[in-house]
């Protein structure tokens, strides 16, 4: 005991070792954040019972487990020192907390975190990620910290925004997108697991369990891929310029054939020029069979057409972005099933493409023509038309792209390019048919998505064979 403590009346009594359990119990109760009127102590030994009796001025020893009124303690402490119980407990044990308030604060932080994730523009643009966001919430915050969890989720969304990759090794990709942290996506890291769960959700596959499955999923997303394996099919594209990409595309278009462009072709195109006015319209389809039908129908007059072959890979996304940067207007169509809608949302999110005959009205018209079909699978919201998912759930029928190919070909007929005349050295003129001439079925411009978040880099197996319900007319080619 110091001289200062001895000079304060009653200080020695409060600091008796036998009263330590009293002050510790009071500290815990007062830090709860709840109202306190009584304190249950014990079990107390004889020395502690005697010290408590001296403090409270009792004429006999209390029970071994006494219940003491806080008001009585306040009177005794104030009489001894002129201070409150809270002041004494704070001095003898430490600052008082507020566990109720702290729990409320942590709950508010978590609520704000999950609201932020659910409303993030990447999740809104690709509603399939909503299930991933919900699974993250169900798993809870990482290491009990909402701040740490937000940092991890921010990194995951950053990675997803940069996919598909650039045919680079995983450590190189990680260093590029995560400020030099080359090993942040190494196998087994929390961030790697989080991103792979998101990709599995997008592709509607089971989460990878083995190292081989994890590598395969990264490859599907365009990471650890190579510049030759990633390809995209193109038809009817005739840019000007002496670059390899322009010459390849033009040669095949003039022959009425498709060309398979590699990621290397797209990354190093050389001179590649599209006409400035009128701006060319490039239509995009999901299935190679639709591209084949268009080339068979129009031959060398086929309008510009890009095929993603299911999930667009790095080559497809980079080509579409390059065409958009050159001024092309992009229009996308795909299958009316769960995965087809997710692919469409992905394309519209990663490029400035607009939907092409992908509304709920278009779906209902297609179902009216083909009222029987397979189940659509897992249905997610279509950001460009909030009624589409509801319509698909109502009918429960998937409509593959080939079943509406004739309607698409009729649209393309209005934009079929003119044959190239001898001596032309500039790009071709592509004319977009007004919506009124097509029945007004193309989605309005404001329904297009302009954000460019993480692209997915694989493709599902292309549709093969002719659907049973295709009419003979669909397979006829114009002379």
Summarize the SSE layout with pairings.
Elements: H1 3-7, H2 11-14, H3 20-30, E1 38-40, H4 46-56, E2 67-69, H5 70-81, H6 85-92, H7 99-118, H8 121-125, H9 129-139, H10 146-162, H11 170-177, H12 190-203, H13 211-220, E3 231-235, H14 244-254, E4 259-262, H15 263-267, E5 281-285, H16 288-298, E6 305-307, H17 314-325, E7 329-333, H18 338-350, E8 354-355, H19 360-369, H20 388-395, H21 405-413, H22 472-475
Parallel strand pairs: 5-6, 5-7, 7-8
Antiparallel strand pairs: 1-2, 3-4, 3-6
Helix pairs in contact: 3-6, 7-10, 9-12, 10-12, 16-21, 19-20
> How many strands, what sense, and barrel or not for the largest sheet?
6 strands, mixed
H/I helix tally: 22
Provide the succession of SSEs: HHHEHEHHHHHHHHHEHEHEHEHEHEHHHH
Would you count the extended β strands for me? 8
Structural class by SSE content: alpha/beta
The low-pLDDT segments are 1-7, 418-479
Strand content range? 5-15%
Q: Report the mean per-residue pLDDT as an integer.
A: 85
Termini distance? 109 Å
| Rg value | 35 Å
Strand arrangement in the largest pleated sheet: 4-3-6-5-7-8
Shape label = elongated
Q: Helix proportion of residues, in percent?
A: 40-55%
Structure, described:
It contains 22 helices and 8 strands. By secondary structure, it is α/β, with parallel strands linked by helices. It has a 6-stranded mixed beta sheet, sandwiched between helices. Strands 1-2 form a two-stranded antiparallel ribbon. The longest helix has 20 residues. The N and C termini lie far apart (109 Å). The N terminus and C terminus are likely disordered.
